[in-house]
Amino acid sequence: MINVNRQGEVWVFAEQHNGKLEDTPLELLGKARQLADELNAKLAAVLLGSAISKLADKLIRYGAEEVYVAEHNLLEHYQATSYAKIICDLIHKHEPQIVLYGATITGRDLAPRIASAMKAGLTADCTDLQIGDHTTANGKESYKNLMFQIRPAFGGNIIATIINYDRWPQMATVREGVFPLPEPAPNKKGDVIIEEVHLSKDNLALEILDEHKRVKKVDLKSSRIIVAGGAGVGSKKNFKLIWDLANCLGGAPAASRAAVDLGFIDSDYQIGQTGTTVRPSLYIAVGLSGAIQHKAGMTESQKIVAINNDPEAPIFDIAHYKITGDLNEVVPRMITAIKKKV
Amino acid sequence: MGYNCLVAIKQVPDTTKITGEAMNDDGTVNRSALPAIFNPEDLNALELAVDIKDRLGGKVTVVTMGLPAAADILREALYRGADEAVLITDIRCAASDTLATSYILSCAIKKLEYDIVICGRQAIDGDTAQVGPQLAEKLGVPQITYVEKLKELNETSITTQRNIGNGWQVARAKLPALLTVTSDANEPRVAAAKRMMKYKNAKAPSEIAESLKKQNPNADEESLNVLIKEKCEALSAKGGLIKQWDLDFLKADLKWCGRSGSPTKVHRIQNVVLRSKGTKEVKPDEKGINDMIHELIEEKTIA
Q1: Full-model pTM
Q2: Which residue in A162, A222, A341, B250 has the most C-beta neighbors within 10 A?
């Protein structure tokens, strides 16, 4: 743990694999920029790897004022023990007030190991971050300018705001896709700070023997229009309706977890708390009841059209257009109308 | 020969069964209105341990921290193949966040022999996936998270296939090591009838004390304690005693337990109420749909 340091910086862990930055740290830089401005603090990115210093410029273009670079050939492949050691050393040295990680598999593997070693707090899978004040329940103590770590809990049925006022840094992992990618500033200047790295083979707890990456079949996050089917679509064969509607709109097909579990479509297409979080211009929900876990992944859509034969389906609570009816009739009518450009 | 596998499990409210009745008036969730279940991915963790024992020999010990009622999932684990069960229960554990929980669990696990510690990836009440890695750090052992397959196990190392989101990775760690296991790892076996017969009377001392108190309402404390001790010893001889440890027994530093050991605090809890600003009803007929598509094209939502 480090002491409360009001002058501390705001940090974002710059997750990269094979020399390529993930999107999540860039999304986080956008949000962290706001937090840092509100706190009047500097925003820094923390970049670890082997031969990765060239990525620092990109982090600066996305909002970092400084990039701490830890380069070492033993850091080529991410693993929790070695990365946690380096980041803990950096936290001790620079005493940031906030450290953010993407809630990716890597972030969820790494951040708790760091939190445990630092004896600091960590909030998982945040969907929003804000700066605010807190007064203890007995009214005796109050703390200003804390990071509010906002996350769904209890299967998405409640939203908890978590704080950490004494054992710093304040740390959180943040869900992928909940913050929009900021606009990069092409000519922005920043400081690249090369850190000394002390590592030996003993710091590598794992041997990575093999790795297989596959490209996701669909990029839901950058789709402007999404057509999502639920269990109500009925069958894999009938799911063709979803594909047809998506195709004629130039959009992407997607699904609820229930539809994925029923085998209608691959899990790459899943939207929701255990899938992708999206914020398209138009979201069409077909035969999809709108479980809270699903809504968590799409409620930021600008326009929502919902089609369901149950007028009480919870998806209608957040829909802009409510169509109570048989999807097998409604969807073909929509396709015809779109093709005719009525 | 064989491996000592230690499985950390959790009793959780079944968050998939939340309805209006399970909410308190102030918007918080009334946990007691929900059925308490064995955390689903902890069943996968247990299955992996029992599978290792079946194939390669060894022993499976399950550990949980919770209320005395969590003895239910320890019995369930015994039915499904565990050999020994440990209940960590102490009022001073209350309000522990993941950091304090991992500290308390680490105190208990350090008292036991282990080659492999196995946890479920995450619990359905918090979905944090933090206790596994934090426990690994406290124990000073390597962690392999999101394990979906055990590839190889020998006296010195364990090799697994883990999910890395957009693919998989084969990672090897020296023993002892900690794994967190996803629901893709296996199909948990059901309780075996023979084991249910053997362990249905397995009890933790707190349960024994409670039932003896009911049976002997007039007994003084001293004679009650004698009865409890006798009963525990008898059960222990049959292998049916669930060990029960408190923080004193663990010699845990209370500074790192419960509320004081938890850096994260709750600022606010809100009910999720998602509503759109205005919902327009659209008739499912041709005119209704044409009008809606027309609107979406006019406002350039559809290009």
Answers
A1: 0.89
A2: A162
